[in-house]
Amino acid sequence: MKFKAVIDQPDLLRDSINAVSTLINEAVFKVTKSGIELRAMDSANVSMVEMRLLASAFRSFDVDKETEIAVNIGDLTSVLKRAKSTDSLTLELKDNQLHIEFSGETKRSFNIPLLDLKQEQKAPSLEFPVMIKIKSEIIEDGINDAEIVSDAIILEADTSAFTMRAEGDNRKTELKIEKGDEALIELKASSKVKSIFPLDYLKKFIKAGKLSPEANLHLGNEYPMKLDFKVLDKLQLSFILAPRIESE
Amino acid sequence: MKFKAVIDQPDLLRDSINAVSTLINEAVFKVTKSGIELRAMDSANVSMVEMRLLASAFRSFDVDKETEIAVNIGDLTSVLKRAKSTDSLTLELKDNQLHIEFSGETKRSFNIPLLDLKQEQKAPSLEFPVMIKIKSEIIEDGINDAEIVSDAIILEADTSAFTMRAEGDNRKTELKIEKGDEALIELKASSKVKSIFPLDYLKKFIKAGKLSPEANLHLGNEYPMKLDFKVLDKLQLSFILAPRIESE
Amino acid sequence: MKFKAVIDQPDLLRDSINAVSTLINEAVFKVTKSGIELRAMDSANVSMVEMRLLASAFRSFDVDKETEIAVNIGDLTSVLKRAKSTDSLTLELKDNQLHIEFSGETKRSFNIPLLDLKQEQKAPSLEFPVMIKIKSEIIEDGINDAEIVSDAIILEADTSAFTMRAEGDNRKTELKIEKGDEALIELKASSKVKSIFPLDYLKKFIKAGKLSPEANLHLGNEYPMKLDFKVLDKLQLSFILAPRIESE
Fold this sequence. Notes:
Three copies of one chain form a homotrimer.
Chain A: E1 3-7, H1 10-21, E2 26-32, E3 35-41, E4 47-54, E5 60-63, E6 67-72, H2 73-80, E7 88-94, E8 97-103, E9 107-113, E10 130-135, H3 136-147, E11 152-157, E12 161-168, E13 171-178, E14 184-189, E15 193-198, H4 199-205, E16 214-219, E17 225-231, E18 235-241
Antiparallel strand pairs in A: 1-5, 1-7, 2-3, 2-6, 3-4, 4-18, 7-8, 8-9, 10-14, 10-16, 11-12, 11-15, 12-13, 16-17, 17-18
């Protein structure tokens, strides 16, 4: 079993692991010739994260056969936090440890222990009647606005508009964006939908917005949501969240 | 009763409400054709704040008759904090709520409940023998310097100089500025004065310094002080503070 | 006894006193015609600091005879923190107090009490087989990297390389820099050395890195270290630290 990969954009790895780290404690990465993959439920079993760091994001990517690398995510983030954005970063399996090397003005290396865990999470099969391509910061605005009045957010869409709103305690907030607005890049809706989601999860997901200025949001009616961030040819990061089943 | 006003500088509203919010919990705004006015004692009855946001600060300002709008100031600041400085902001009375809309890349709106309160505070009648027009940051320096050694500050002025000083526990600090110094824009004194004030209040007032690079300070001998910040044709914000009656 | 000195770079004084202030509570400065000197053990008697602010760092420096000035270091740092980097700063002995004046847009002055203490610390006599001239930020990187896995750092050097590393709990980190690397300005080693040091002290010392982009590190085998920061003709700041006597 041999794995060695070099990436010149440590931010890509650091920021995606950071977003993931708020949801899970241990990460099981599947490494194949296509890249590095992670799929996991959060510890409360309410959300799922899928991360795909493509081999094409790396300067070099060598793996002899499919393998799984399990580590404590806190170990990994504390190491990645130490990278400078000008460093190039090498990941390598060595002596049953994950060896991470930063190469910049100096050579700096970190070893973290491997865990004995397997990835068993299957991708859920979901179909969404609504797809919204939107500036990531708009979603962030809606989430932070909603937080003023509630701990949940109502996401609604129809063929012409997307609305994020919250209500509580005689207070209300609403962000509405319509087809034709510059920040709403695309809106495809085959029906009118409405679902309610817990804000605490969305606040974690939206951290990934720093990776990509645009996000794809998939919605249904009283149905889970899926939020995707992509960096072309490099990274796909998806978050799936169950709706809150309750009347407004 | 109809009220709708649009302002293109949300910072003006946000920063003045922020300065006021450290003193009071509920705000009763009087809205007339001239603009929006607030006059209130702080909850400890030691200081008074007067705010006048002139109709000319707004892009449009429509009110059919004099009316009072009372809201929780925490509600208001948490909403205004969400504005971007490029947003234009609409205030409107609607369905017995204050409706605030941000218009930028998207339309975002917030509703906060009205309170059933009246403004009853009368303006005190004060005459000051000393008026000092000075850079706001100089006052801020004097306050922060004084805080190192005491919880009170001594303000002194005569025909030629203005002094902010503090003493305590074998430590001393003094900021002195004289006629002719560039940062002392104007000094009018008909007599020599000295008063002592609690620093905690001054630290709250001086937050308004970010609204205006210059301040007008009015002083008397063992007498209240009045600190004014103005943005020409837009905003007047005044703080009045009772002196500490004590020997040094 | 007369002492008055004016310095146009308040940062020089503030940053060096700041670095020192994490180690000691009272400072006894020896003032001579050559400048201002401080030598002290930290309160746990594990490290020693030596500071020399040369008379040539000052615009004017007048002292009639060698004298000692003892102050509470908290008093001094809280005053120096109030200086703007464009202020010129005057230190003066007056009425048995240390009088510090900032001269900028205004004149601001602070008086702090003198303490009745003497400096009795002798310089230790140490000889180091290894001297390393290195960018300060490299040392800072090594210290912060090590902190992820341990509370101690192993410093090693031989004729060709300098290594900072840490181990703990199945985790490892290593920063290695070799002769010829740009960030390693000079490496003189007459033998191979290795010593272990507590990270908490190094984290305090390295604050002085903001004063000087380069540092001189002196090492021996299971022997104290000495870390020097210099600003040519102005400042010398040295930290000496006892090694941890333990097997890895």
